[in-house]
Amino acid sequence: MTKKRKRQDDFQKVKLKVGKRKPKADNATDVNFRTKGINLTEQLKTGTGPTTHRHLNIKDLLSQLHHYSGGVKQGALVGLRELLSLHPHLLDQHLSSVLSEVAAVFTDKDSTVRAAAVRLLRFLAQCVPSERVAPFFPLLSAHLTCAMTHIVEGIQEDALRVLDVLLEHYPALLSARCTVLLRNFLELISQRRLSRAGKGVEERKPGSWTLSTAPGRTVTAQQWRLTVLTRLGCFLQAVVEERPAEERGTFGDFLDGEEKGRGCVTPLELTWEEHAFRKGGVQVYENSGAQPAVPSSFRLRPVTEPGAGVTEGLVSVETVRGFAATLVPLLLEVWVEASTSEQGKTDSAHLLAPESMSLMYQVLTILQLLRRLTPERHQKDDLDAWFRSSYLNDFKHHFMKNFPYGLLEVAKHKKKGELKRTKQQAAAGGAGSVEPLALNVTLCQVMVSLSSRPQGGQDAEWLGPIRGFATETLSSGVRLSSRHLAALLEVVWRLVLTHRSRAVTEELLQAAQVQYQQRNLTLPVRMLLLRFFSRLYLQEHQAQPHIARSKVLSRWLAALPLQLAQLGSRNPHLSAQLLQTVQAAAAWKNRDLLHSLQTHACRLYDPQEGSVVLLPADSQQRLVELVYFLPLLPPELLSCLSRCCTAGRVSTSLAASLVRLVHIRSSLCSWSAGRQEVAVSDVDYFSFLFSTLTGESSCSHGNVCALLGLPVMLAWFSSEKLAALQHAGEDMVLPPSPLSPLSIYPTQQEQFNHHWLIVEEVCHCLETLGSRSQCFDVLQNAICKNLTGLQVVPDSTAAALLRVVSRLLDLSLLPNEILLRFLSDCCLSLLSLLEQEQGIPNNAEKSEAVRDVCLAALSGVPRLLRLVLQSLRVSDLCEEEFSQLAQTLSYLLRQSQLRNHMLANAALLQHIIQDLTRYCQGEAQEQWLTDLLYCYSVTLSTHRGNLGLRDIY
Amino acid sequence: MSAPMEVVVCADSAEQLWNCAVFELHSGTNLLSYRGGNTSARSLTVLNGEYILGAQLGKNVINVWEIQRKDQLQQKIVCPGIVTCLAASPNGLFLLAGIAEAIYVWEVSTGNLLAILSRHYQDLTCLGFTDDSSHFISGGKDNLALVWNLASVVQLDSSRAPEPRHVWTQHSLPITDIHCGLMGPQARVATASLDQTVKLWEISSGEMLLSVLFDVGVMSVTLDPCEYFLFCGGSDGSIFQVSLCSTNLSRDKTFQSDSEGNQVFKGHRTLVTCLSVSMDGTLLLSGSHDETARLWDIQSKQSIRSINHKGPVTNAFIIPAPANVLLPDSHPAVPLPRFSRHLNPSEQSDGPESGGVCLRLGASVQGPEETYLQKAEKLHSLMCAVTDKSVFGDGENTKVRVSELEEEVKTLKKINKDLYDFSTQLLTKPS
């Protein structure tokens, strides 16, 4: 019952009536509300990441690369490029996936996709450094290999583009996996020839490869080969350049095999490390040290470092040889086909179309690179010998047949087809047009490397055309680019060593000399030629007599000093190189060079614009050292040198060593008591020392000569500088006064110091001359003759004179009156200068030196103090000078070393002081007078006190 | 007084008192003096402890004295030119003389001129031997120092001229002195030059180890026996002591005197021409152009004695006292032969006066030796043969043994069969 009722409740019938609104259902939605959207912009962005203009993010793009449609894939690649260039940070996060996806489409069958992939790869390579790509490189190269060996030709072609990109940006990584790639290259242009007779595997020879032609290609077989060979050349270049161990100068193979004969040791690179005590602790050896623990050679990723890119495949001679054995016959075939294709067209076989020329050029480049593949020098010789034994005849036959190749002049009116071909060719190979010179030079290089030195005679016949070509090219006066020139010079070097005949050497070197003598060469070319000659001289001179006797070489050497002088300061780098050669040749007593050096010495050592003052310091040092090797030091040169020393444009230490070198070359010093040719005559030497001593001044030396009993020479030092000084304006010099009888010209502090150090050196030289009394006489005469007449003296000169006299003077020697008077004038003038300059702060060093030298002279030279005191006449002084005099006097009185001399001149002193006090009477006693009187009383009273004591006892 | 351990040998360029003299190291007493002529720099040498050789200054003559006979000149060797430097090998077998640009090599026992080495471009200044006489170093005015292997120089090989083992070209002015340390071919060599540097080299590798720059040209150089210090005589009379154990790491350094080892000995007035350190490294002998030779105590840097000469000192060195030096009655073990002036060994040997036979090695005449691998293989096969023999013995023994073994096999087989039969019986027997 209850059941029924309930059921009725559930299903009540709704009665609908016409004209009434339909009642709302219970579950009807109330739509009486309004909505507004909420935009959370940041959240939206983070959710999907940056997108392209098509609103695709990186995940979309990467997944699109798996799409079956080529258009979509290409779009994805373009989009990737756009996205990554806009947001480089994405690259860091997604590098692995991007690279692996891009690599996967290398082998896509749609060419537009591949082109886009290459473009993307190029973009990636620009952004990502080599060490970050390294972990993905196995993958990349696997895909590359796959593409290169693909059966579809278009993919093969595009694989080469990929290779281009990788070669450009990651040569080290690529060269580390050269073994696989080299094989791929072979397969691109050739195919294994399966032996028909025997089906068994063992009968296939690995070496039998033949060139293949694919008729279906859009380009001709030659063009295809050219593209492949160009890449192969680039690749081998990369392999050679990434070789870690080999050091190569600018000249590359210039020295190959040259140093080996001398028992050359591979230089050990020493690294000096600070040995830290008590830091490392004691090292405990396993097995009680019997077996030293070998540091593990395990490396996590051996290919990452470009330096350690050890090419396992190509380190030994055998592997290189094996590869070469496969490759060289193929290259020869290519060559033959290229040359025969020409023969049909023209009657002269040495003229080539540009296309075959570049093909041949590539062949030769690859041969040249093959030689350089082995890392070590002796292996290289092995390889050369092997090349020589196996391929010399082939090479001679094919390469040398039409040797100096020329370019076939293309008809002026180009046909359409031809135009198209050239375009294709330009697209195909980077080295679209090769000049015949490059081809010929490379050919020379390849052939010359096959010549062997012991059998030079046999090789001479086929080397003849090469020699002719080298000579002609070099001596034709054509300006060569530095690359061609380097290659040609290498050829010349090798030829000279191979031929060992003087005539050939002369001919070749003459040709190189023609190049050298050209004007306006660019710097690298000039440097190249210079290095060529200097290394030829330095390295081969000793062992090879035909080079040693070469006239061209010695002419070249003889021209160097002039070049050095003409070069001036324009190119210090070049000058340094020149100087190095000049110095070596001078040390080795090359007669021509020494003669020319002697001729141009005055220009080189000119104190105004000679190289010695213009060049940087280390070149200056070389030039100074060169003085030692000059056979003769004539007076003019010595005058230049002396002025160089004093002018202050060379450093003080260098000037001092110059003085020492001249000293060594003089007859008065013989460090090795053997026969040493004397370069400087004694008179000149004395004049040199004296004029260096007096600074700018100079002197005539008749008296020196007369005294030494030597032939009288004329005055050779110009005295214009000092003469000019005599007429200098009054504002520059201090005017003479009773207190300073000479006008003193105050020099700069630096100049004074410079001169002072040189004076010390000169004094030392004079001291060691042997007979001291004679030396002093000479000096005394020189001073009397040349300097006593002067009115204006630089303070450095005055100080120098005092210094040298007090150093040279001996108890047994008595200076004459004139000298003493001049010295006393100097001394007094210097002392008064000191008083005047007391206020100037930065002259402390100079005034210290001047003060010392005055005191030393006053105490050391007998009667000098007396003369100084005698010349002080108080009556002549004006009033301002009283104080100055008094200060000087009290200063002298305070010096303990002068005390005995003062006591000896007590009467004179007393007289002066009496005068002084008399003249000052009437005025209030000034401070200076009190000081003076005090000093005077102290000095003399101690003396009297002593006397008094003595009297008592 | 006990016999002196070490003596000082000095020579000067004046010939007033004597040519050269021998002094006792510690007391400074003059033991012996040798008269006649004078000696040029770096050309006084003691040969084999029995002779003193000195090149006459400015003449092409080498003076020879027997070391025990003072005063008397024993012999004069006439040379093809003026001798600028002279060196005798420490083992007394070879004599080197630098004559102009060439080095002359004589064999002392026969007097034959073995080789003339002309690799220098200018006059030689000094020659020095390693202590084991295996190498010598020559320095010249052409800035070059060359290291020669004596064995390869002496080797009879007419096809090519002997080449120096190393050519050191780093100096930029003439080389003035060379000192070669101890340790034979592993020695270190110090070279001094007018370019104000002293450089230290290694003979074995030929590398430069150290270069020290001074304020003045360096005229002489020596090392103490331990190679703790380098002593360099400057052209201004000071002697510089450079510590080689300092912590300064750079390969090129400039000399500065400091408290730790780098010091200056002052006393000479002009250039110091020769330096030598005593065997125990405590005394330094220096000779100078100021006509004195001084003896210094290295520890305290004081001059403890000054030996006055009449002229510039050209040679001064300390050597262990030769046995003969104080025995006036002794004689040299071997008389000195006549030294030949020409390089023609064939004619020399033909002459009737040369009774001896000149023995010189040819350039590796015997075939190449076996390699170690071959030797090892040979040894291995030998050892294998021995084991084979001991195990298997001779032929007869083998036969007997084979038959014995066969018999044993038979019995074993029989036993096995029996065992099998027994067990099959046991198993197949119905229970």
UniProtKB/TrEMBL annotation, chain A:
This is Pre-rRNA-processing protein Ipi1 N-terminal domain-containing protein. Signal peptide: none annotated. Belongs to the IPI1/TEX10 family. Residues 14-23 have a biased composition (Basic residues). Residues 132-236 form the Pre-rRNA-processing protein Ipi1 N-terminal domain. The keyword Protease does not apply. Keywords: Nucleus. Residues 552-698, 714-941 form the TEX10-like TPR repeats domain. The keyword Nucleus applies. GO terms for cellular component: MLL1 complex; nucleolus. It is found in: Nucleus, Nucleolus; Nucleus, Nucleoplasm. InterPro entries: ARM-like, ARM-type_fold, Ipi1_N, TPR_TEX10. Residues 1-23 are annotated as: Disordered. Its main location: nucleus.
From TrEMBL, chain B:
WD repeats lie at residues 117-158, 189-211, 265-306. Keywords: Cytoplasm, Developmental protein, Nucleus, Repeat, WD repeat. Residues 383-430 form the WD repeat-containing protein 18 C-terminal domain. GO terms for biological process: DNA-templated DNA replication; rRNA processing. Pfam families: WD40 (PF00400), WDR18_C (PF14077). Its main location: other. The keyword Electron transport does not apply. GO terms for cellular component: dynein axonemal particle; nuclear pre-replicative complex; nucleolus; rixosome complex. InterPro entries: WD40/YVTN_repeat-like_dom_sf, WD40_PAC1, WD40_repeat_CS, WD40_repeat_dom_sf, WD40_rpt, WDR18/Ipi3/RID3, WDR18_C. It is found in: Dynein axonemal particle; Nucleus, Nucleolus; Nucleus, Nucleoplasm. Functions as a component of the Five Friends of Methylated CHTOP (5FMC) complex; the 5FMC complex is recruited to ZNF148 by methylated CHTOP, leading to desumoylation of ZNF148 and subsequent transactivation of ZNF148 target genes. Component of the PELP1 complex involved in the nucleolar steps of 28S rRNA maturation and the subsequent nucleoplasmic transit of the pre-60S ribosomal subunit. May play a role during development. Belongs to the WD repeat IPI3/WDR18 family. This is WD repeat-containing protein 18.
